[in-house]
Amino acid sequence: MTPTNLPWRVATVVATKPESVRAKAILLDVPGWPNHLAGQHLDLRLTAEDGYQAQRSYSISSASNGKPQIEITVERVDDGEVSPFLMDELRVGDQFELRGPIGGYFTWMPGGSGPLLLVGGGSGVAPLMAILRARTLGGDRTPVRLLYSARTADELLFRSELEGLDEADGEFDLITTLTRGAPVGWTGEQGRIGREMLAARGIASEDRPRVFVCGPTPFVEAIADALVALGHDGGRIKTERFGPTGDVK
Predict the structure, then answer these.
(1) 3-class DSSP state for residue 151?
(2) Can you name the residues that pair with 212 across neighbouring β-strands?
(3) CA of residue 81 relative to chain centroid, distance
(4) Neighbours of 242 (CB within 10 A)
(5) Average pLDDT of every residue of the chain
(6) What backbone phi and psi angles, to 5 degrees, belong to 16?
(7) What is the largest CA-CA distance in the chain?
(8) What is the pLDDT of residues 132-150, one digit of tens each?
(9) Which of 21, 93, 166, 219 has the most CB atoms around it within 10 Å of its CB?
(10) CA–CA dist 27, 34 (Å, integer)
(11) Of 4, 8, 14, residue with least CA distance to 45
């Protein structure tokens, strides 16, 4: 539930860039924006000329750096009201309203005990990217492993950034898997993330990782159940899910 005392702020589009064939990152300047925690989200509101309004929630994919700028990553929902506009019509200089940051449960800060296990499905990797960026920005050396599932290689978000981090950071391990076939030369995993893959490529429950899982509701529920079945402490598993429209739940 969104706190009722959060003000709506005017956000101005500073830049956009493709993140996959179905998604793009949008950098926003938001005067008065407070610092946010990695894993938080925001509400975005569009208002048409006739007064009609459409509102959606989006995870923040950037780390807080003390500037009034944030990044969201939008994936197209073909029958949606908001994402097609943001994907096809939005231009640098355009403005809309947003409020946030929202959420205190699915958040991460540097420090704490145990390694990090991040599990993302589709655009659910966006808040996990904020965690990774916050870790890098803060110089944190917590060991972290990301298991990331996408339908096709063309739909992998943040691919070059994640692969670069995997090469440069010896404490970061990237495992990607594709669920709808792989291109020639693909060296990652194939198939859905489930109990078998978590056992083989995740972090063992004996190492007591802190776990963050984000994606569509069925994905999140299946991963959480599999982790508990593998002996992970349910109290160390944090989940964030979204429905058919992409709204964060």
Answers:
(1) coil
(2) 118, 238
(3) 21
(4) 25
(5) 93
(6) -135, 155
(7) 58
(8) 999 999 999 999 999 999 9
(9) 219
(10) 16
(11) 8
State the DSSP string of 30-92.
Answer: -TTPPP--BT-EEEEEEE-TTS-EEEEEEEB-SPP-SSSEEEEEEE--TT-SSHHHHHHT--T
Measure the CA–CA gap between 150 and 168, rounded to whole angstroms: 23
Q: Is the peptide bond before 101 cis (omega within 30 degrees of 0)?
A: yes
* Global confidence as pTM: 0.94
- Residue 170: is it exposed, middle or buried by C-beta count within 10 angstroms (0-12/13-18/19+)? exposed
Burial status of residue 208 (CB atoms within 10 A of its CB: 0-12, 13-18, 19 or more): middle
Question: Domains (ranges, CATH) in the chain?
Answer: 9-102 (2.40.30.10), 116-242 (3.40.50.80)
Q: Residue 122 pLDDT > 80, yes or no?
A: yes
Q: What is the pLDDT of residue 247?
A: 55
103, amino acid identity? G
Neighbour tally for 53: CB within 10 Å:
10
pLDDT digits (tens, 9 = 90+) for 60-114: 999 998 889 999 999 999 888 899 999 999 999 999 999 999 999 999 988 877 8
What does the alpha-carbon distance between residue 26 and residue 12 come to, in Å, rounded to a whole number? Answer: 10
